[in-house]
Amino acid sequence: MISNIWKTIVYAWTDAVPPSLIEKLPEGISSNSAWTASAQFFESFGFDKLIYIDRTMAGLSMFTTFPESWTSHYRAAAYERIDPFFAYCCTSTTPMGTGIDYLSDYPYLCNAQRQLIQEAGETGMRAGMSCIVRQASPGGAGGWNLGSSLPRHEIEKIFSEHADLLRLTAFFAHQRLQAALENEHRDIALSPREKECLLWVAQGLRSKQIADKLGLRPVTVELHLKNARTKLRAATREQAIAIALLNGLISP
């Protein structure tokens, strides 16, 4: 029933919807499959530099077509704390231009924010449009940065012609991705050591202190914490603890 409703809405807006769009994002789809199907759809319009990012109190969910080296750098530098996407784009559902081609439009950005945009530009990201699916609130924010290696004027033309379809798809794909991530978090199995290390971090201990308590080397503690973050799709230790607590994987 839900799929039929979405099809009706989509076809009412445009005749250009691929017949298999909804079928590629069925209920129960995995997050990786949902991401792949969504990315292929957006890429068919020329958006080859995609970022789906959603920040909640439980942590950061992020999928992107950017190089892994850039994604790792983004997480390691905790760029979500200063990302203009969260600071400005997510304050309104009105699409905003993104990328280095729009940098001169935002003179109020700080140096760190400009550096982030320039670093993204070094991967080929020139221009894009924001599609916000969850406006900024105390609980977080999220959406799509439909980026491209195409120049600004081409992106604006594409978006103006297909804005309704792109924004609807962004919202629908967000719903599928979030449902999949919630199901996958329920199935996460942390090892006893990973749980122990997270609990000690939650109590304020550093890696060396945890190592002393557990009779391990600090590098081993770091490895357990890294594995836990990877399993929980968390950018930081704090986010890993929050996700683990919310999903009942550890108890305070």
UniProtKB/TrEMBL annotation:
Keywords: DNA-binding, Transcription, Transcription regulation. InterPro entries: Sig_transdc_resp-reg_C-effctor (IPR016032), TF_LuxR_autoind-bd_dom (IPR005143), TF_LuxR_autoind-bd_dom_sf (IPR036693), Tscrpt_reg_LuxR_C (IPR000792), WH-like_DNA-bd_sf (IPR036388). Residues 183-248 form the HTH luxR-type domain. It comes from the Bacteria. Pfam families: Autoind_bind, GerE. GO terms for biological process: regulation of DNA-templated transcription. GO terms for molecular function: DNA binding. The keyword Transcription applies. PANTHER family: DNA-BINDING TRANSCRIPTIONAL ACTIVATOR DEVR_DOSR. This is Transcriptional activator protein LuxR. It comes from Roseibium aggregatum.
